Amino acid sequence: MADAASRLTTLAEDLLGVPLPVAIRAWDGSEAGPPGAPVLVVRSRQALRRLLWKPGELGLARAWVAGELDVEGDLYEALDRLSGLVWERGDGTGGTGRAARAVRAARAVRDPRLREAAGALIRLTGPFPPPRPPAEEVRRRTGPLHTKRRDKEAISHHYDVGNDFYELVLGPSMVYSCAYWSPGGTLEEAQTAKLDLICRKLALRPGDRLLDVGCGWGSLAIHAAREYGARVVGVTLSAEQAAYARKRVAGEGLTDRVEIRVQDYRDVGDGPYDAIASVGMAEHVGQVRYREYADDLYSLLRPGGRLLNHQISRRPEKNEAAYRVDDFIDRYVFPDGELAPVGRTTTALEEAGFEVRDVEAIREHYALTLRQWVANLEARLPEAERLTSPGRARVWRLYMAASAVSFERNRIGVNQILAVRTPDGGASGLPLRPRAWTERPDR
């Protein structure tokens, strides 16, 4: 079909009611759209069939993961321009943007003009159903959320994809959470600064017992034991992470001070601990379990002990009851993962008995971290595809780049919440000017 790009652009703009913010290059080699804009490459009509059957982010994600869609030019700019059409948030509906609503309205015959445009798009793509979802997609799950078995399966989907792949993306630090940047610093320096900041906020001293909830590949546990003399228990649900972390601990000569367990945090029963760190783990807990999570950590901490909860947050919806998890994230990245507004997190911690003493918002730091991870992936993309699959590498590139844009545009944030199990006497143990931890004192 000659000049498919022009027809696609016209049909898309008729459906959306706004100019298309990117150019389109179609499977026939034709191109249309604003000059100088990033180019959305539609390699196959199957991409359009996916979008017609699943309008919004899930159809887009399936086409992207299958290699039927690509972007030429600045990926971040393309995602930013498309975000209002595909990932629109904060409208009180919990919906997924103008594109999905337009196609659904056309299907519902609410607008003859939209129905005609949708019909023309169907004629362009053919009447055939879309192909099966890519192999990287998690099937829709049923049953109760956040049981121990279901959480273990979800964690395995995300983390047990090969330690070599994570080394490629994360770099030598093997830290999979927001770094703490200084101007001109490297990723490794920023990740070390983040680990040290956590230890200082927790006021770790030699011999202190630290529980590292969701310990990943052991970076914080090793840093706390080596630099602060702490005795650390790290727990993870990922067998691959645990094996890797234990090997690192042995290599550092810290087996007498660091224990790595494959264990659900709900099964930890050897408290009390002097300090608890939960970094990038609470996003997996879910709203139905969050108060239980806060209660469990409170019970594991000695009076006067500190909790450092490092967690991604989302902006509140006007109608919180309508909030739902993004389809792309749920099916391809973090099954059953949920984000909460920071106010809800602090409330749950306070209801459990904690005294929240400090909240530090560091979302710009996560945008910088994600951009570096994307650069690491793109620099060694053929190797990443060999270590996992081409589809999995595409999942990660889209997920990390889109997340970077979301942090930059204040659609999501990340916060370090310092809370204390304050004793009955009311002595929190914090200095009068607690932000002194931003500068590490000589020890």
CATH architecture of the largest domain: 3-Layer(aba) Sandwich
Number of helices: 17
CATH C-level of the largest domain: Alpha Beta
Uncertain residue ranges: 89-96
The CATH fourth-level homologous superfamily of the largest domain: Vaccinia Virus protein VP39
Number of domains: 2
Report the biggest beta sheet as strand number plus sense, adding barrel if it closes: 7 strands, mixed
Rg measurement, Å: 24 Å
> The CATH topology of the largest domain is what?
Rossmann fold
Euclidean distance between termini CA atoms: 72 Å
Order of helices and strands: HEEEHHEHHHHHHEHEHEEHEHHEHHHE
Strand order of the largest sheet: 7-6-5-8-9-11-10
Beta-strand proportion:
5-15%
What is the helix fraction of residues, given as a range?
40-55%
Number of strands: 11
The overall pLDDT average reads 89
Shape: elongated
Keywords:
17 helices, 2 domains, Rossmann fold, 4-stranded mixed beta sheet, 7-stranded mixed beta sheet, alpha/beta, elongated, 11 strands, 443 residues
